[in-house]
Amino acid sequence: MAPQPSPWSVLRFDCLRLSWDVLTALVSQLAEWENVAMRAAADIRWEPLTILFALASAWWVKWPLFAAVGACGDLQCRRRVPFVGLTALGAAAAAGLVVSLLKGISDRARPPIADPALHAIGVVPDSTSFPSGHSATAFATAIVVGAAYPRLRLPLLGLAALVALSRVYLGMHYWSDVLAGSLLGVAIGLAAVWLVRRVRSTAVPAPCADEAV
User: Fold this and answer.
1) Is residue 183 very low, low, confident or very high in pLDDT (cuts 50, 70, 90)?
2) Which of 52, 62, 88, 139 could form a disulfide with 134 if both were Cys (CB 3.0 to 4.6 A apart)?
3) 65 vs 203, which has greater pLDDT?
4) How far apart are the C-alpha atoms of 138 and 95, rounded to whole Å?
5) Is the pTM for the entire model greater than 0.85?
6) Which is nearest to 131 in space by CA: 67, 165, 178?
7) pLDDT at position 39, please?
8) Mean pLDDT for the chain overall
9) Most confident among 2-6, 18-22, 69-73 (mean pLDDT)
10) In angstroms, rounded to a whole number, what is the distance separating the alpha carbons of residues 36 and 33?
């Protein structure tokens, strides 16, 4: 006669199955809420706002603009090596690499592909949706440059948030894609600042007295 499973084993299996069912139901519900939110975002489109978000979503804004601000600060401080600009560039590269890896794992279709009723503004990229690369690189570089030049911290973070919101408004990403990308970018930016401080044994270069960036 085959051994019978103990009551504790049966109870543990039932709990695991219940947890999985609850998690599946929660994910399905969140996906439905996101679809509703995406349709709501499409309904409030307004031409001046569309122009603003299209500019914020441009390739040269998502990280090159932030790195350029850091490099201009380096130039203003007369540094021989554009230290802040290069650190921002490294953070953007790290964020892009992690995003590429996660996109390969998640394989999530972009909103207009998953739901043909959702119309995107602009060309939909071939890459998968989760997480948002624009959000990740924008926040990663904003954190680095903002750490070097505190007076620019809030404007840079505000611009990064505008970049992230533009991806939802234009129909390129779900809200969760943008949230995950933003949190990832913040984490990578903070890690870059921490690493630089450890290597140099000093803080990231402070703003110059005559800062004009």
Assistant:
1) very high
2) 62
3) 65
4) 9
5) no
6) 178
7) 73
8) 82
9) 69-73
10) 5
Give the whole-angstrom CA distance, residue 59 versus residue 65: 9
Opening angle at CA 153, ends 151 and 155, nearest 5: 95
Tokens (6 digits) for 115: 């739901």
Question: Where are the alpha helices (H) located in the chain, listed in sequence order?
Answer: 7-43, 47-56, 59-62, 64-76, 83-106, 111-114, 133-148, 153-169, 175-200
CB atoms within 10 A of CB 147: 25
Q: What is the CATH number of domain 46-200?
A: 1.10.606.20
Nearest of 176, 187, 171, 164 to residue 131 by alpha carbon: 176
Tokens of 25: 């139901």
Q: Which residue has the tokens 């989760």?
A: 130
* Lookup result for tokens 């349709």: 39
Would you say 111 and 121 are in contact if contact means Cβ atoms under 8 Å apart?
no
110-143 confidence digits (pLDDT tens): 888 888 878 888 888 888 989 999 999 999 999 9
Buried b (16+ CB within 10 A) or exposed e, 163-179: bbbbbbbbbbbbbbbbb
- Domains of the chain by residue range: 46-200
Q: Distance (Å, rounded) from C-alpha 184 to C-alpha 93?
A: 13
